[in-house]
Design goal:
263 residues; alpha/beta; Rossmann fold; 2 domains; 6-stranded mixed sheet; 4-stranded antiparallel sheet; 8 helices; 36% helix; 24% strand; binds adenosine-5'-triphosphate; binds magnesium ion
Length: 263
């Protein structure tokens, strides 16, 4: 498998209004291979969303470099799709008009883009809701529509920032299963941020644990369990326990670490 994302010596410091420095990430070296399903976990404020935004090309690193598909990343690229926790559907557009958005940007012909969107909405069980507006859908349906929109352009990489965080436990389990069957079928690269160790072990081929701020990589695990995964399996519990121990350490470290601005 080829490397699809290569991050070397990356750090990110934000400067607040009074020029106070907030060192969010430091010493990040991370290589992600094509078709991996990488979950990023870590305490709140450990820089998970920042790392994702850097990989998406929405913000720039303070030091270090990011290459995506062998090219230095300058800005968001068309081969990547993004899904956020808060759905980010346009409230004034109905569901199908939301899903065609990325295809519109790519100047796909109208007939073609609506056919593609219909196809995808069917896969996501939303065929009866083309004309509905986001406020008329449940949280799970909105998130399905947001994922449908992100994959409509057939991105090679899908970045997801706590996409299921706002869903109830049952809907969340359903969405996790759907995401796994999508990924198994289409074999994309997914980088998925979550607070939940359990969700990370259920989904990822690999789990990266971030330390408390300034975020550094404190663990990198390959989850060697077949799909679909069984939460009641003993090996699942073993991975869960190991990662929980590390997460607890990361959270304890949160109280002790100061911010060193090494830029
Ligand atoms: N635009 C910004 N300006 C200033 N500081 C920022 C900005 N974005 C993030 N930060 C700071 O960077 C640190 C990391 O934030 P980030 O949102 O990446 O954490 P996170 O791991 O995603 O947290 P959570 O789990 O709560 O979502 C925080 O201290 C945050 O205040
Ligand atoms: Mg975040």
């Amino acid at each position: 498998m080829d490397q699809i994302i290569e991050i070397n010596g990356l750090s990110k410091t934000f400067f607040l209004e009074k020029k106070q420095a907030v060192c969010a990430l430091r010493n990040i070296d991370l290589n992600i291979k094509d078709q991996e399903f990488v979950c990023l976990i870590g305490p709140s404020g450990s820089g998970k969303s920042t790392l994702l935004r850097l990989m998406e090309g929405l913000i720039k690193p303070s030091t270090g470099s990011i290459k995506v598909m062998d090219k230095p990343l300058e800005k968001p690229i068309s081969q990547a799709g993004m899904v956020f926790q808060e759905y980010s559907l346009l409230p004034w557009r109905n569901i199908i008009d939301n899903v065609v958005l990325g295809l519109e940007f790519r100047k796909m012909a109208k007939k073609e883009r609506y056919e593609k969107a219909k196809d995808i909405l069917k896969k996501f069980g939303l065929e009866d809701f083309h004309e509905s507006f986001p406020y008329e859908l449940s949280g799970g349906m909105k998130q399905r529509a947001a994922i449908a929109r992100a994959i409509a352009t057939s991105p090679k990489i899908l970045y997801m920032d706590e996409p299921f965080g706002a869903l109830d436990a049952y809907t969340r389990f359903q969405m996790q299963k759907e995401l796994i069957s999508f990924w198994l079928g289409e074999k994309r690269t997914i980088v998925f941020v979550t607070h939940s160790v359990e969700e990370a072990v259920f989904l990822g081929t690999r789990v990266i644990i971030m330390s408390a701020r300034p975020g550094e990589i404190m663990g990198d695990f390959h989850i060697d369990l077949p799909y679909p995964r069984d939460r009641w399996n003993e090996e699942f519990a073993e991975y869960f326990k190991r990662l929980m121990d590390l997460m607890n350490r990361a959270n304890e470290g949160k109280m002790m670490k100061g911010c060193v601005n090494n830029d």
